[in-house]
Amino acid sequence: MGRCKHCGSEVGEGELFCGNCGTRLSEETTKEAAGAAVDAAEQTADTEPEESQAESPEPETTAQTEPVGNAAQTAADGNEAPRGVAKETTQTATAESAVRTAAPQERAGKKKKGGLFAIIGAAALALLLLGFGLRTALKTTEPVGQRFLKVQLETLEREGKVFDVADKVFENGFSSDFLLTAKLSESRMIALSRSGILSESGMRILRDGIRARFYLGKKFEKAVLNLEFASGENPVLNADCFIDPDRLGFKIPQQSEKVYVTRYPEVLKEMGSDARISTSLFAELRFPKELGRASAKRYGKLLADAITRNNLEVEKRSYRSHVLKPELKHSLDKDYTVYSWEPQAAELERLFRNIADAMEKDSELAAWFDRRQEIGEQFAQAMGVSQGQGAKFSDLADTLRDNAETYAENLEERKFAWKLVTEGKEVRAILLQLDEGDTTLLCYERDTDKDKLYRGLALPGFMLTEKRDREKSGYYGTVAGRVYWDYDTKEFALKYNNLDFKKGSVLGLPCGKYRLNVNDGGSAAELKFEVRDEGGFSYYELKNDYGSFTLKASKSGSATLPEGEEVNIDDELLEGNVPQRRISDFISEL
After folding, report:
1. How far, in Å, CA of 404 to CA of 415, rounded?
2. What is the distance between the alpha carbons of residues 21 and 17, in angstroms, rounded to a whole number?
3. CB contact set of 312 (below 8 Å; sequence gap of 6+)
4. pTM score, two decimals?
5. 80: pLDDT strictly greater than 50
6. Which whole number is the average pLDDT over 170-188?
7. Per-residue burial over 305-317, b = 16 or more CB atoms within 10 Å of its CB, e = otherwise
8. Under a CB-based contact definition with an 8 Å cutoff, are residues 541 and 556 in contact?
9. What are 259's strand-pairing partners?
10. What pLDDT does 84 receive?
């Protein structure tokens, strides 16, 4: 308790005005009230971080759209305080100002509780702002290395989604009915007829088409193919076949109603292969997505820990295009924030040894990798290519550990650099290079100009670029690529228009019109094709100088296993006397 210096009446602790005469109390009293509010906020904030951390997702799974950000930028300036902390300080000052400015709003004659309400309100505001500031700080103080890698990974994941459509076609197995028809130009028909290549049966096949019903299991447990050359009551030729991990069978009704079956893994083994080759091996070659995510998290953390405030340089400057300018005549010539990681040999050596240690303990990835190597050895032996053994996962770990110092020194000597280029919150370029930029290991660039998109990827001996724009009818643009080695160069340009990326087809290709130009050592060729989706079917129509070819694909299939009396032909295959040896003669007569 205290007394008013004007009238001498008693006043409560922390009150701003005298309840008797209404005179504003001394500045010291006001400061004490403000200090009490801030102290209360700070005491409450001591428990706030734990709650914020509990509510915030793991750094590895939190989607951060902001680039490496101010945490790395302040490192370059020698300031360790992240952006969230600076924001918190500003908010606390705002709370103090709110307490001070609340006083003039009260006037003489108000009751005592009016001053208390102002203090309580200011204290609550301070608590809210301080809590928000702490939560923001927790999000923006993520380790620099993690933020450096995360924004790049998110960008590359978005870019990779264009391939997800094709990958998902076979992700859960595949089943479809196809019909391939052709309309040859009159000059081509005459030429084929005069040469004797196109017989009456061939004419029927062109007119009625080739039907194929296909089924593929999710784990390659079975594949079935029904072929029919020329439809109708009397097809020119039928062929039904299947394969699973243990057997392969086929039937040609024009020759026999029997289904000829072989236990091909055993036959191949007896024919000289020391390995059992089966379709089940293909399923084992697929890299599990869960294992991929776990591996990326494990080894990504080791790499992120090696990137710190001390070895990540940040600067504002222009960036010279390594892909877009020479390929698309589009240059990245703005002012960017460039993050450069150019580690020293000691840092790289420590990183390599840490990775080797993690590999030594990584039993899951080792099991998949070693099994993959074994399968590769089996295929190589079956084809007579190689009899050697592939390296095991533990061998790779030992090699990396034994040569960590050498590898690190070589990279430092060749000026290894990893650069991230951003414009605001957008990633514009990712670059891995040696020899002060003379040697490019990887360069990805992306830029936008109004509705236009420019992007490109460059690797040793390979370059891919795309320029895209949008019209009311859909997207149009060009995808160009070049593969070069020694003195040989192959180039292609795929131009598209009216493309609808949201409207895919059975085989995953977006609906639209395409034109493909290929240049192989001076030999040029052009193909035009269109993809459209109508009435539950996808149509792929290709045109060239010979005529047009149309593939019709259904969104569900009806492939069936061949039926009939089964005949085992293992012995005939081993002896070289296949009972269906006349099939080739029959087909040639067509």
Report:
1. 17
2. 8
3. 68, 72, 75, 144, 145, 148, 339, 340, 341
4. 0.68
5. no
6. 86
7. ebbbbebbebeee
8. no
9. 566
10. 37
Number of other residues whose CB lies within 10 A of the CB of residue 59: 16
Rounded Cα–Cα distance for residues 57 and 146 (Å)? 14
Q: Angle, to 10 degrees, between the axis of helix 289-306 and the axis of helix 363-382?
A: 120
pLDDT of residue 576: 67
**Local structure of 172: helix, strand or coil:** coil
* Interval 470-491: pLDDT, tens: 988 899 999 999 998 877 889 9
E-assigned strand segments in 187-323: 210-216, 223-229, 237-243, 248-251, 259-262, 312-318
Tens digit of each residue's pLDDT (9 = 90 or more) over 86-112:
333 444 444 444 434 444 444 444 444
Question: Do residues 527 and 542 touch, judged by C-beta distance below 8 A?
Answer: yes
CB of 145 closer than 8 Å to CB of 303: yes
Distance CA 250, CA 579 (A): 12
Q: Residue 330 has which token pair? A: 């589009």
Q: Which amino acid is at 70?
A: N
Q: Report the half-sphere exposure of 550 (CA within 13 A, side-chain side).
A: 13
H or E, element range at 552: strand 547-554
CA distance linking residue 56 with residue 168, whole number of Å: 32
Which residues, including other chains, have CB under 8 Å from residue 573's CB and lie 6 or more apart?
Answer: 262, 267
Instruction: Answer yes or no: are the C-beta atoms of 556 and 526 closer than 8 Å.
Output: no
Burial of 461 (0-12, 13-18, 19+ CB in 10 A): exposed
Q: What is the mean pLDDT of the chain?
A: 77
The two tokens of residue 39 are 């102290």
Residue 308: phi and psi, rounded to 5, are -125, 175
Instruction: For residues 445 and 543, give the distance between their C-alpha atoms in angstroms, rounded to a whole number.
Output: 34
Among all chains, which residue has been given the structure tokens 């081993």?
A: 574
Could you tell me where the beta strands, DSSP code E, fall in 151-290?
174-184, 210-216, 223-229, 237-243, 248-251, 259-262
Q: Of the spans 72-86, 158-172, 274-288, which averages the highest pLDDT?
A: 274-288
Q: Which residues sit opposite 500 in a β-bridge?
A: 511
Looking at residue 405, its pLDDT comes to 97
- Only one residue has tokens 């026999």, namely 256
Q: What is the pLDDT of residue 378?
A: 79
Quote the CA–CA distance of 323 and 329 in Å, as a whole number.
9
pLDDT at 214: 95
Span 201-242, pLDDT tens digits: 777 777 788 899 999 998 888 999 999 887 766 777 889 999
Backbone dihedral angles phi then psi of residue 270, each to the nearest 5 degrees: -70, -20
Tokens of 17: 């005005």
